[in-house]
Amino acid sequence: MLSAHASQNTSAYDFSFVSIDGGTLDLASYRGQPLLIVNTASQCGFTPQYDGLQALYEAYQADGLVVIGVPSNDFGKQEKGDADEIKEFCEVNFNITFPMTDKVTVKGKAAHPFYDWARAEVGFAGRPRWNFHKFLIGPDGQIADWFASTTAPDSAKVKQAVEALLPR
Questions:
Q1: From the candidates 44, 59, 83, 166, which is the catalytic residue?
Q2: Long-range pairs for 4-13 at CB < 8 Å and ≥24 separation?
Q3: What is the per-residue pLDDT for 152?
Q4: Is residue 57 in some structural domain?
Q5: From CA 154, how far away is CA 146, in angstroms rounded?
Q6: Is residue 22 part of a domain?
Q7: Residue 101 structural domain
Q8: Is the pTM here over 0.85, yes or no?
Q9: pLDDT tens digits, residue range 4-52?
């Protein structure tokens, strides 16, 4: 799945985000754990995927999986709120308990550095094209797989990919 340009010197653990709560969400704090990093939006046709993301998190959290929601307004201007509004929306409507970042840009010249790195790793085909694009990061910090917005987080395809990364 990864491009020929994949760099073994850089990993997801080299990046951090501003947490939705205002602190730092440092991906290095999850070293050794699989991560599912998903760009999200509150007013999207895929927004109901929050239910599947929360269910996936609850099912595999004890085994080490961390789901991280990354709100973005890049696709269809479907995330208009600020951090407090997004957090409230997610908690009230979907009972979200997994970590979330503050709103960031995931495409173009202003993209968050994690998304620049991820795009370089997976190539043109694997870049986010809409809300709820998913990057699965292995315990080594490298991208293990990616899933388009149309792939539900509770699909067999995602579950199998996650399970392959969990300790046996």
A1: 44
A2: 5/120, 5/121, 5/123, 6/121, 6/142, 6/143, 7/120, 7/121, 8/142, 10/117, 11/140, 11/141, 11/142, 12/37, 12/114, 12/117, 12/118, 12/137, 12/141, 12/142, 12/143, 13/141
A3: 97
A4: yes
A5: 14
A6: no
A7: 41-165
A8: yes
A9: 344 458 999 999 999 999 999 999 999 999 999 999 999 999 999 999 9
From residue 168, alpha-carbon distances to 4, 37, 64, 153, 157 in Å are 30, 22, 11, 21, 19
Contact (CB, 8 A) for 71 and 99: no
Domain membership of residue 23 (yes or no) is no
Phi–psi pair at 24, nearest 5 degrees: -100, 135
CATH of the domain at 55: 3.40.30.10
Token couple for 148: 């388009």
156 three-class SS: helix
C-alpha closest to that of 136 among 106, 14, 121: 121
Catalytic site residue 90? no
